[in-house]
């Protein structure tokens, strides 16, 4: 395995001490099969234990290692170091408050997820004797890709609407809500669509499509939001013919 030297320029920020973020450069030996996360782990383990960054699974599953690499939101455990030149800049994800160095605050983001009611809503509980709720492959295909999100927040970092409109529910949360609306077992679309149509909902999306471009799992949040817009417009048009059910 060949080894070369690269300079990793990392954004450092301690809100207890620093007024503004600064950068710190580390020249380290890297192996050409490393991901960017491995370079950060090398720095933490061998050069500077004060560096703070977040990761867990190292296999693109937990969604915790999202950072801006050379200005682009990336899942660093999946991002090959060989795709960059001799200098790599690593910064925290944009559009989030920074806790420290490369670690961002998740709280507001998680609230947006809860707001779209990401669970199966049923009008009445299914009795045990009714058996399992069967779903055909076609019904599964209606929402499966939208259920692949790992909450890595790359889409929020890339989204121009999130940066201008902090109350925008955002790509991942809206795609997740749409995923449940598309699920044949769910009866909560009327409730979610009211939230979708509110300020900061689907109609705030300008279809920049950046969310879909950066998604490391191929979720296509932008497509989900456009489908949700269409469903809501059709729903609105139908309401003139058939009165809408009141949500409880
Ligand atoms: S460390 Fe889990 S997704 Fe990267």
Features:
alpha+beta; binds FE2/S2 (inorganic) cluster; elongated; two-stranded antiparallel sheet; 248 residues; 5-stranded mixed sheet; Fumarate Reductase Iron-sulfur Protein, Chain B, domain 2; single chain; 9 helices; 2 domains; 7 strands; Ubiquitin-like (UB roll)
- The class by helix and strand makeup works out as alpha+beta
How much helicity do the residues have?
25-40%
Write down the domain tally.
2
Strand content bin: 15-25%
What's the helix-strand series? EEHEEEEEHHHHHHHH
The shape is: elongated
Sheet of most strands: 5 strands, mixed
Could you tell me the radius of gyration in angstroms?
A: 21 Å
Bound molecules: FE2/S2 (inorganic) cluster
Compile the SSE list and pairings:
Blueprint: E1 3-12, E2 22-31, H1 36-47, E3 66-69, E4 72-75, E5 87-91, E6 98-100, E7 103-104, H2 107-115, H3 137-141, H4 154-158, H5 160-164, H6 171-181, H7 189-197, H8 210-214, H9 221-238
Parallel strand pairs: 1-5
Antiparallel strand pairs: 1-2, 3-4, 3-5, 6-7
Helix pairs in contact: 2-6, 6-9
The structure holds FE2/S2 (inorganic) cluster.
